[in-house]
Amino acid sequence: MSALAFGIQGSGQLTDGVPDPGRYRAVAELAEEIGLNSIWAGEHLSFHNPILDVGVALTAFASWTARIQLGAGVVLLPLRHPSLVAKQMASLDYLSGGRVLLGIGVGGEGEKDFEAAGVPRAERGSRADDGIRALRALFGPPPASYSGIHYAFDGIRLEPQPVQPGGPPILVAGMRPGALRRAGALGDGWLPYMVTARRYAEGLAVIGDHAAAAGRTLDSFLAAIVLFALVRDDGDAAREEAREHLSRRYGMTFEPYQIEKLCVVGTPEECRARVLEYAAAGVRHFSFNPCAAGDDFLDQCRRLHDDVVAHIR
What we know:
By secondary structure, the chain is α/β, with parallel strands linked by helices. The protein has 11 helices and 11 strands. 46% of the residues lie in helices and 18% in strands.
């Protein structure tokens, strides 16, 4: 088995309101201090809870760290013109010394993001495909030109160029057939969430088929996942706590089976077993999203490292 990498969703502590800005710094510095591989931030324009702009959050994380990778998990690409995403992420990659991972999603958690951006939700798949191809052109040697369904440009100079040749790795989110095709045909990696280990393995196989059909291989493919996580000494209490937490965060009811099957929640032993189950399914980069807020979020970062990650590496 190749080496496993572990990261943390650095904006998850927003669940119970907007924290003091110092908490963002504390999470980033702690993640680097304890030896995690990555810190992540996602985005919504309109959501149930406050959330920072993904580029601003990652830039702040970059300024407070020196080694750790900076993961966009994820940018809702259909809501943005790819030239703006490319400029933002190339600049961040340049300033951070080549530490960016670019997760791409189509947006599936509500209509308000699309309403706010003025983008038809029905176009999200085609805009994502078109946008990734445009990003590839923009991350290549300037000047860049591209002509697609939704986006077209000619002679664009994106400078400074990203440090990573060809730009930050593009990880495609999602489990639907279109997302699996997109990951295999266009992506450098895969970043789903709320998926069982069995379905992850099945999805990875489908991605491999799409990659082969496109004349690509998965030799350098980054198989990643976002997992809600909570480590407690009492496993049953942890599962109920996580269920209540996620129900509040997303404004919907999470069922016990979802916590049991789709999350890393329970005692340290149970959490380690679940991580190894996903690793056996093909996951190589784990991004934990703690079901916690405030000081407990920081405590969970430490527990995930000390009680889970340190025993597996």
